[in-house]
Fold this protein.
Amino acid sequence: FQTAVRYIATWSKLYKDHSDVTFVGRDYADVARAKETGRTAIFMGFQDITAIEGDLSLLAVFHQLGIRWVQ
């Protein structure tokens, strides 16, 4: 969990630092906003569920941090 949060923070800062070309997408409206502003909406996610450490309530925390999919 802690490692995942650190990675999310690092990537979120990178996208914010380059907000002229990208931003973290959170919903479908952000796809339209990206197109309108000429930027790229980045939708963050995980390729496995290790970060939730068996606690499904952590999914809500990750959702608040911008995670939108888990494989």
Observations:
- The mean pLDDT is 96.
